[in-house]
Amino acid sequence: MNLELMHFIETEILPRYNRFDRAHSMRHAGNVINNSLKLARKTGADEDMAYVIAAYHDLGLEGPRAIHHITSGKILLADARLKRWFSPEQIKIMKEAVEDHRASASKAPRSLYGKIVAEADRELEPDTIMRRTIEYGLDHYPRKSKEEHFSRFRKHLEEKYSVHGYIHLWIPGSENERHLKDIRNIIASPTLLRKNFERIFEKVREE
Fold this sequence. Notes:
Blueprint: H1 3-13, H2 26-43, H3 47-56, H4 68-78, H5 88-99, H6 112-122, H7 126-140, H8 146-161, H9 175-187, H10 190-206
Helix pairs in contact: 1-3, 2-3, 2-6, 3-5, 3-6, 4-5, 5-6, 7-8, 7-10, 8-9
């Protein structure tokens, strides 16, 4: 990987995630970067491109959340500093990949790079998913009671990750397939779902 590019991303781009909630912090950005690089190596994609896409994918949260994927793509496209390392065609592909990363998207990403960042952004390890859901709730709805947080937690997991959920996986054989099965087993068991919520909720609230 290009060390100069890495220095630019680490000093100029990633710190912007400190402005966001805990579910979209630098920790999340770092996880998406690591996941993207693993998938890039597995699929033969350009690692520098996958790295940049992952780094920019949620910057649009500086504006309205509903269109953050579109805003993130615009931020990447407008950053003239990237021309130092990438061609106009590469920048166009990266911009489209950022736009295509959103979990609720019904259409497949337009390129391999879009599939990589979409898959990397899922972070489907069960504890990670449940923690991020709880963190988002506590950060955005601090006045809700514990039972209200549990209700929101359960509804979100069912709507997104259950067998009827809207999430899509785009790279066959990825680790996410196994993790998604584990999450669905937890969702299907009210007792297991509540037990995991209690364990993680208390831990997150104490931090």
